[in-house]
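pinned: reference chain
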Amino acid sequence: MPAPSAPGKAYLVSRIFLPFALGYYLSYLLRTVNAVISPDLTRELGLSAADLGLLTSTYFFAFGLAQIPVGIALDRYGPRRVEAALLLVTAFGGVLFASGDSLPTLASARGLIGFGVAACLMGGLKGFTQWFPREKLASMTGYIMASGALGAVTASAPLEAALPFLGWRGAFWMVAALATAVAALIFFAMPEKDEAHSSGDLQHALRGVREVLMAGRFWNFAGQSAFFTGGFMALQGLWAVPWLMQVNGYSRALAADHLFWLNIGMLTGQLSIGAWAFRLEARGFPPLRLMQIGLFLTMVVEALIIAQQGPTLLLWCMLGVVSATGAQMYGVVAGLFPLHLSGRVTTSINLMAFVGAFVVQWGLGGLLDTLRAGGMAAADSLRVAFLILLAAQLASFVPLARAGRFKPHGMQ
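pinned: its C-alpha coordinates
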Protein backbone atom coordinates (compact mmCIF):
# COMPACT_ATOMS: atom_id res chain seq x y z
CA MET A 1 0.00 0.00 0.00
CA PRO A 2 1.79 3.18 -1.14
CA ALA A 3 2.26 6.13 1.19
CA PRO A 4 2.26 9.83 0.45
CA SER A 5 5.60 11.18 -0.73
CA ALA A 6 5.79 13.48 2.31
CA PRO A 7 3.54 11.96 4.99
CA GLY A 8 2.35 14.29 7.71
CA LYS A 9 2.31 13.76 11.46
CA ALA A 10 -1.26 12.45 11.58
CA TYR A 11 -0.50 9.93 8.84
CA LEU A 12 2.65 8.71 10.59
CA VAL A 13 0.87 8.34 13.93
CA SER A 14 -2.22 6.55 12.61
CA ARG A 15 -0.62 4.36 9.93
CA ILE A 16 2.87 3.71 11.33
CA PHE A 17 3.02 4.27 15.07
CA LEU A 18 -0.42 3.04 16.18
CA PRO A 19 -0.33 -0.41 14.53
CA PHE A 20 3.15 -1.07 15.92
CA ALA A 21 2.08 0.23 19.33
CA LEU A 22 -0.88 -2.17 19.45
CA GLY A 23 1.39 -5.07 18.55
CA TYR A 24 3.84 -4.23 21.31
CA TYR A 25 0.99 -3.69 23.78
CA LEU A 26 -0.11 -7.26 23.11
CA SER A 27 3.47 -8.56 23.28
CA TYR A 28 4.11 -7.06 26.70
CA LEU A 29 0.73 -8.13 28.05
CA LEU A 30 1.62 -11.72 27.13
CA ARG A 31 5.13 -11.34 28.54
CA THR A 32 3.84 -10.47 32.02
CA VAL A 33 0.49 -12.26 32.25
CA ASN A 34 1.89 -15.30 34.07
CA ALA A 35 2.86 -13.18 37.08
CA VAL A 36 -0.82 -12.84 38.02
CA ILE A 37 -2.14 -16.22 36.85
CA SER A 38 0.80 -18.20 38.33
CA PRO A 39 -1.08 -19.12 41.57
CA ASP A 40 -3.95 -20.54 39.47
CA LEU A 41 -1.57 -22.46 37.23
CA THR A 42 0.35 -23.82 40.23
CA ARG A 43 -2.84 -24.93 41.97
CA GLU A 44 -4.52 -26.43 38.91
CA LEU A 45 -1.46 -28.20 37.48
CA GLY A 46 0.52 -28.90 40.68
CA LEU A 47 3.65 -27.08 39.47
CA SER A 48 6.91 -26.69 41.37
CA ALA A 49 8.85 -23.40 41.31
CA ALA A 50 11.14 -24.80 38.62
CA ASP A 51 8.12 -26.00 36.58
CA LEU A 52 6.56 -22.56 36.83
CA GLY A 53 9.81 -20.88 35.84
CA LEU A 54 10.18 -23.22 32.86
CA LEU A 55 6.58 -22.73 31.74
CA THR A 56 6.88 -18.96 31.89
CA SER A 57 10.36 -18.75 30.41
CA THR A 58 9.60 -20.78 27.27
CA TYR A 59 8.19 -17.48 25.99
CA PHE A 60 11.63 -15.92 26.39
CA PHE A 61 13.44 -18.96 24.98
CA ALA A 62 11.37 -19.04 21.78
CA PHE A 63 11.47 -15.25 21.51
CA GLY A 64 15.26 -15.31 21.81
CA LEU A 65 15.69 -18.07 19.22
CA ALA A 66 13.60 -16.04 16.78
CA GLN A 67 15.58 -12.82 17.05
CA ILE A 68 18.34 -13.38 14.47
CA PRO A 69 15.96 -14.80 11.81
CA VAL A 70 13.49 -12.01 12.57
CA GLY A 71 16.24 -9.40 12.17
CA ILE A 72 17.18 -10.81 8.76
CA ALA A 73 13.52 -10.95 7.72
CA LEU A 74 12.85 -7.37 8.85
CA ASP A 75 15.78 -6.05 6.82
CA ARG A 76 14.80 -8.16 3.81
CA TYR A 77 10.98 -8.11 3.75
CA GLY A 78 10.04 -5.14 5.93
CA PRO A 79 8.17 -4.98 9.24
CA ARG A 80 4.64 -4.97 7.84
CA ARG A 81 4.67 -8.45 6.35
CA VAL A 82 6.91 -10.02 8.99
CA GLU A 83 5.00 -8.79 12.04
CA ALA A 84 1.56 -9.50 10.60
CA ALA A 85 2.50 -13.11 9.77
CA LEU A 86 4.06 -13.77 13.16
CA LEU A 87 1.05 -12.41 15.05
CA LEU A 88 -1.04 -15.18 13.50
CA VAL A 89 1.35 -17.62 15.20
CA THR A 90 0.65 -15.76 18.44
CA ALA A 91 -3.08 -16.25 17.92
CA PHE A 92 -2.58 -20.01 17.44
CA GLY A 93 -0.44 -20.14 20.61
CA GLY A 94 -3.19 -18.34 22.53
CA VAL A 95 -5.76 -20.91 21.39
CA LEU A 96 -3.47 -23.78 22.38
CA PHE A 97 -2.77 -22.27 25.82
CA ALA A 98 -6.46 -21.61 26.47
CA SER A 99 -7.35 -25.23 25.69
CA GLY A 100 -4.28 -26.93 27.19
CA ASP A 101 -4.37 -29.09 30.32
CA SER A 102 -0.78 -30.28 30.83
CA LEU A 103 2.63 -28.71 31.39
CA PRO A 104 4.08 -29.83 28.00
CA THR A 105 1.07 -28.42 26.12
CA LEU A 106 1.08 -25.11 27.97
CA ALA A 107 4.86 -24.77 27.66
CA SER A 108 4.65 -25.41 23.91
CA ALA A 109 1.85 -22.87 23.60
CA ARG A 110 3.84 -20.34 25.57
CA GLY A 111 6.77 -20.93 23.23
CA LEU A 112 4.57 -20.35 20.17
CA ILE A 113 3.35 -17.09 21.72
CA GLY A 114 6.92 -15.97 22.34
CA PHE A 115 7.90 -16.80 18.76
CA GLY A 116 4.83 -15.03 17.42
CA VAL A 117 5.47 -11.71 19.18
CA ALA A 118 9.20 -11.76 18.44
CA ALA A 119 8.92 -8.92 15.91
CA CYS A 120 6.53 -6.64 17.80
CA LEU A 121 9.12 -4.25 19.23
CA MET A 122 11.83 -4.81 16.65
CA GLY A 123 9.37 -4.34 13.79
CA GLY A 124 8.34 -1.03 15.28
CA LEU A 125 11.92 0.14 15.71
CA LYS A 126 12.73 -0.92 12.15
CA GLY A 127 9.67 0.94 10.85
CA PHE A 128 10.60 4.06 12.81
CA THR A 129 14.09 4.12 11.26
CA GLN A 130 12.40 4.03 7.84
CA TRP A 131 9.77 6.71 8.42
CA PHE A 132 10.99 9.07 11.17
CA PRO A 133 14.09 11.34 11.27
CA ARG A 134 16.98 10.13 13.42
CA GLU A 135 16.55 12.88 16.01
CA LYS A 136 13.01 11.61 16.73
CA LEU A 137 13.98 7.96 17.27
CA ALA A 138 14.67 8.25 21.02
CA SER A 139 11.23 9.76 21.56
CA MET A 140 9.54 7.16 19.35
CA THR A 141 11.31 4.42 21.29
CA GLY A 142 9.95 5.90 24.51
CA TYR A 143 6.42 6.05 23.14
CA ILE A 144 6.33 2.49 21.82
CA MET A 145 7.84 1.24 25.07
CA ALA A 146 5.05 3.12 26.86
CA SER A 147 2.50 1.12 24.87
CA GLY A 148 4.23 -2.02 26.10
CA ALA A 149 4.06 -0.69 29.65
CA LEU A 150 0.33 -0.21 29.17
CA GLY A 151 0.11 -3.89 28.25
CA ALA A 152 1.98 -4.75 31.44
CA VAL A 153 -0.42 -2.55 33.42
CA THR A 154 -3.35 -4.45 31.89
CA ALA A 155 -1.75 -7.74 32.92
CA SER A 156 -1.55 -6.73 36.60
CA ALA A 157 -4.40 -5.46 38.78
CA PRO A 158 -6.98 -5.20 35.93
CA LEU A 159 -6.36 -8.82 34.93
CA GLU A 160 -6.45 -9.94 38.57
CA ALA A 161 -9.84 -8.26 38.94
CA ALA A 162 -11.14 -9.92 35.76
CA LEU A 163 -9.93 -13.45 36.51
CA PRO A 164 -12.95 -14.45 38.62
CA PHE A 165 -15.15 -13.73 35.59
CA LEU A 166 -12.90 -14.81 32.70
CA GLY A 167 -10.61 -17.38 34.23
CA TRP A 168 -7.09 -17.73 32.85
CA ARG A 169 -8.40 -19.75 29.90
CA GLY A 170 -10.91 -17.06 28.93
CA ALA A 171 -8.15 -14.46 29.09
CA PHE A 172 -6.12 -16.41 26.53
CA TRP A 173 -9.11 -16.84 24.21
CA MET A 174 -9.34 -13.04 24.21
CA VAL A 175 -5.60 -12.82 23.50
CA ALA A 176 -6.00 -15.04 20.44
CA ALA A 177 -8.76 -12.83 19.08
CA LEU A 178 -6.77 -9.64 19.73
CA ALA A 179 -3.66 -11.04 18.03
CA THR A 180 -5.66 -11.86 14.91
CA ALA A 181 -7.18 -8.38 14.82
CA VAL A 182 -3.81 -6.63 15.22
CA ALA A 183 -2.27 -8.81 12.50
CA ALA A 184 -5.02 -7.75 10.11
CA LEU A 185 -4.59 -4.07 11.02
CA ILE A 186 -0.84 -4.15 10.43
CA PHE A 187 -1.11 -5.96 7.12
CA PHE A 188 -3.97 -3.99 5.60
CA ALA A 189 -3.55 -0.50 7.12
CA MET A 190 0.21 -0.02 7.23
CA PRO A 191 2.08 1.37 4.20
CA GLU A 192 5.02 -0.43 2.64
CA LYS A 193 8.43 1.02 1.95
CA ASP A 194 10.04 -1.49 -0.34
CA GLU A 195 13.01 0.64 -1.20
CA ALA A 196 14.22 0.38 2.38
CA HIS A 197 14.57 -3.43 2.24
CA SER A 198 17.98 -4.98 1.89
CA SER A 199 18.81 -7.28 -0.99
CA GLY A 200 21.12 -10.24 -1.38
CA ASP A 201 20.97 -13.92 -0.52
CA LEU A 202 20.95 -15.61 2.88
CA GLN A 203 24.73 -15.75 2.98
CA HIS A 204 24.86 -11.98 2.51
CA ALA A 205 22.31 -11.53 5.29
CA LEU A 206 24.28 -13.75 7.65
CA ARG A 207 27.43 -11.74 6.94
CA GLY A 208 25.54 -8.74 8.27
CA VAL A 209 24.69 -10.68 11.44
CA ARG A 210 28.35 -11.67 11.79
CA GLU A 211 29.41 -8.04 11.35
CA VAL A 212 27.16 -7.07 14.26
CA LEU A 213 28.12 -9.94 16.56
CA MET A 214 31.85 -9.52 15.94
CA ALA A 215 31.81 -5.83 16.84
CA GLY A 216 33.19 -4.86 20.25
CA ARG A 217 30.78 -1.96 20.43
CA PHE A 218 27.90 -4.46 20.35
CA TRP A 219 29.23 -6.60 23.21
CA ASN A 220 29.82 -3.50 25.28
CA PHE A 221 26.02 -3.40 25.75
CA ALA A 222 25.20 -7.12 25.76
CA GLY A 223 25.58 -7.64 29.51
CA GLN A 224 23.31 -4.76 30.42
CA SER A 225 20.71 -6.05 27.98
CA ALA A 226 20.84 -9.52 29.56
CA PHE A 227 20.79 -8.61 33.24
CA PHE A 228 19.00 -5.25 33.37
CA THR A 229 16.42 -5.59 30.59
CA GLY A 230 16.23 -9.37 30.88
CA GLY A 231 16.34 -9.29 34.66
CA PHE A 232 13.55 -6.73 34.84
CA MET A 233 11.41 -8.86 32.52
CA ALA A 234 11.99 -11.89 34.73
CA LEU A 235 10.90 -10.00 37.85
CA GLN A 236 7.99 -8.28 36.15
CA GLY A 237 6.82 -11.41 34.35
CA LEU A 238 7.01 -13.83 37.28
CA TRP A 239 9.14 -13.36 40.40
CA ALA A 240 7.85 -10.00 41.67
CA VAL A 241 4.59 -11.53 42.91
CA PRO A 242 6.25 -14.45 44.79
CA TRP A 243 8.63 -11.93 46.41
CA LEU A 244 5.79 -9.69 47.53
CA MET A 245 3.73 -12.61 48.84
CA GLN A 246 6.49 -14.63 50.51
CA VAL A 247 8.97 -11.97 51.64
CA ASN A 248 6.60 -9.08 52.38
CA GLY A 249 3.71 -11.35 53.38
CA TYR A 250 1.14 -9.68 51.10
CA SER A 251 -2.00 -11.24 49.65
CA ARG A 252 -2.17 -11.93 45.92
CA ALA A 253 -4.46 -8.93 45.46
CA LEU A 254 -2.01 -6.60 47.23
CA ALA A 255 0.91 -8.11 45.31
CA ALA A 256 -1.00 -7.50 42.07
CA ASP A 257 -1.49 -3.87 43.17
CA HIS A 258 2.29 -3.54 43.54
CA LEU A 259 2.77 -5.08 40.10
CA PHE A 260 0.24 -2.58 38.77
CA TRP A 261 2.26 0.33 40.19
CA LEU A 262 5.51 -1.17 38.94
CA ASN A 263 4.00 -1.07 35.46
CA ILE A 264 2.53 2.40 36.00
CA GLY A 265 6.05 3.51 36.91
CA MET A 266 7.43 1.97 33.72
CA LEU A 267 4.65 3.63 31.72
CA THR A 268 5.43 6.99 33.34
CA GLY A 269 9.13 6.58 32.65
CA GLN A 270 8.62 5.69 29.00
CA LEU A 271 6.15 8.53 28.39
CA SER A 272 8.56 10.96 30.04
CA ILE A 273 11.39 9.76 27.82
CA GLY A 274 9.16 10.07 24.76
CA ALA A 275 8.26 13.63 25.70
CA TRP A 276 11.70 14.84 26.79
CA ALA A 277 14.37 12.78 24.97
CA PHE A 278 14.59 15.17 22.01
CA ARG A 279 14.89 18.23 24.26
CA LEU A 280 17.43 16.54 26.53
CA GLU A 281 19.64 15.51 23.62
CA ALA A 282 19.49 19.04 22.22
CA ARG A 283 20.85 20.25 25.57
CA GLY A 284 23.76 17.81 25.58
CA PHE A 285 22.12 14.97 27.52
CA PRO A 286 22.06 12.06 25.03
CA PRO A 287 20.21 8.73 25.43
CA LEU A 288 23.43 6.98 26.48
CA ARG A 289 23.84 9.27 29.50
CA LEU A 290 20.17 8.82 30.37
CA MET A 291 20.64 5.07 30.29
CA GLN A 292 23.77 5.19 32.46
CA ILE A 293 22.05 7.16 35.19
CA GLY A 294 18.82 5.16 35.01
CA LEU A 295 20.51 1.76 35.27
CA PHE A 296 22.60 2.90 38.22
CA LEU A 297 19.43 4.04 39.99
CA THR A 298 17.83 0.70 39.13
CA MET A 299 20.45 -1.08 41.22
CA VAL A 300 19.94 1.38 44.08
CA VAL A 301 16.17 0.78 44.13
CA GLU A 302 16.60 -3.00 43.91
CA ALA A 303 19.02 -2.90 46.86
CA LEU A 304 16.41 -1.02 48.90
CA ILE A 305 13.75 -3.58 47.96
CA ILE A 306 16.01 -6.47 49.01
CA ALA A 307 16.92 -4.72 52.27
CA GLN A 308 13.22 -3.93 52.83
CA GLN A 309 14.01 -0.28 53.41
CA GLY A 310 11.24 2.12 52.48
CA PRO A 311 7.58 1.92 51.42
CA THR A 312 7.18 -1.06 49.11
CA LEU A 313 4.59 0.48 46.81
CA LEU A 314 6.81 3.50 46.13
CA LEU A 315 9.93 1.38 45.64
CA TRP A 316 8.32 -0.93 43.09
CA CYS A 317 6.85 2.05 41.26
CA MET A 318 10.27 3.75 41.18
CA LEU A 319 11.82 0.52 39.90
CA GLY A 320 9.51 0.77 36.90
CA VAL A 321 10.42 4.43 36.33
CA VAL A 322 14.21 4.04 36.36
CA SER A 323 14.21 0.69 34.51
CA ALA A 324 12.45 2.41 31.60
CA THR A 325 15.75 4.05 30.64
CA GLY A 326 17.17 0.68 29.59
CA ALA A 327 15.01 0.72 26.44
CA GLN A 328 17.23 3.47 25.02
CA MET A 329 19.82 0.76 24.44
CA TYR A 330 18.14 -0.28 21.18
CA GLY A 331 18.49 3.13 19.60
CA VAL A 332 21.96 3.72 21.03
CA VAL A 333 23.37 0.45 19.69
CA ALA A 334 21.54 0.72 16.35
CA GLY A 335 23.06 4.17 15.89
CA LEU A 336 26.55 2.64 15.99
CA PHE A 337 25.92 0.65 12.78
CA PRO A 338 24.79 1.43 9.21
CA LEU A 339 21.04 1.82 8.64
CA HIS A 340 20.77 -1.31 6.47
CA LEU A 341 21.80 -3.39 9.50
CA SER A 342 19.32 -1.81 11.90
CA GLY A 343 16.96 -4.80 12.01
CA ARG A 344 19.80 -7.21 12.74
CA VAL A 345 21.34 -4.89 15.33
CA THR A 346 18.17 -4.38 17.35
CA THR A 347 17.17 -8.05 17.23
CA SER A 348 20.70 -9.10 18.25
CA ILE A 349 20.66 -6.82 21.30
CA ASN A 350 17.13 -8.02 22.03
CA LEU A 351 18.39 -11.59 21.83
CA MET A 352 20.73 -10.79 24.70
CA ALA A 353 17.80 -9.45 26.73
CA PHE A 354 15.70 -12.54 26.21
CA VAL A 355 18.57 -14.93 26.86
CA GLY A 356 19.00 -13.07 30.13
CA ALA A 357 15.27 -13.20 30.88
CA PHE A 358 15.18 -16.95 30.21
CA VAL A 359 18.27 -17.65 32.32
CA VAL A 360 17.12 -15.44 35.19
CA GLN A 361 13.50 -16.63 35.19
CA TRP A 362 14.21 -20.35 34.96
CA GLY A 363 17.49 -20.10 36.88
CA LEU A 364 15.85 -18.39 39.84
CA GLY A 365 13.20 -21.11 39.92
CA GLY A 366 15.83 -23.87 39.97
CA LEU A 367 17.87 -22.00 42.59
CA LEU A 368 14.80 -21.53 44.79
CA ASP A 369 13.94 -25.24 44.62
CA THR A 370 17.55 -26.16 45.51
CA LEU A 371 17.74 -23.76 48.43
CA ARG A 372 14.37 -24.84 49.79
CA ALA A 373 15.32 -28.51 49.46
CA GLY A 374 18.36 -27.69 51.59
CA GLY A 375 16.12 -26.37 54.34
CA MET A 376 16.20 -22.64 53.62
CA ALA A 377 12.97 -20.73 54.15
CA ALA A 378 11.11 -19.48 51.08
CA ALA A 379 11.66 -15.81 51.95
CA ASP A 380 15.38 -16.28 52.58
CA SER A 381 15.86 -18.22 49.33
CA LEU A 382 14.21 -15.38 47.40
CA ARG A 383 16.55 -12.87 49.06
CA VAL A 384 19.58 -14.92 47.99
CA ALA A 385 18.26 -15.20 44.42
CA PHE A 386 17.60 -11.46 44.15
CA LEU A 387 21.07 -10.66 45.53
CA ILE A 388 22.67 -12.86 42.86
CA LEU A 389 20.74 -10.98 40.17
CA LEU A 390 21.87 -7.64 41.62
CA ALA A 391 25.49 -8.81 41.61
CA ALA A 392 25.22 -9.82 37.94
CA GLN A 393 23.78 -6.39 37.12
CA LEU A 394 26.61 -4.64 38.93
CA ALA A 395 29.21 -6.63 36.98
CA SER A 396 27.52 -5.85 33.66
CA PHE A 397 27.26 -2.16 34.51
CA VAL A 398 31.04 -1.67 34.58
CA PRO A 399 31.58 -1.63 30.77
CA LEU A 400 28.83 0.96 30.39
CA ALA A 401 31.11 3.60 31.91
CA ARG A 402 33.39 3.33 28.86
CA ALA A 403 30.61 3.13 26.26
CA GLY A 404 30.87 6.83 25.41
CA ARG A 405 34.02 6.17 23.37
CA PHE A 406 31.86 4.67 20.61
CA LYS A 407 30.54 7.28 18.21
CA PRO A 408 27.34 6.99 16.13
CA HIS A 409 27.77 5.64 12.61
CA GLY A 410 28.75 8.44 10.27
CA MET A 411 30.56 10.33 13.03
CA GLN A 412 33.35 7.79 13.56
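why pinned: The mean pLDDT is 85. The chain has one domain: 11-405.
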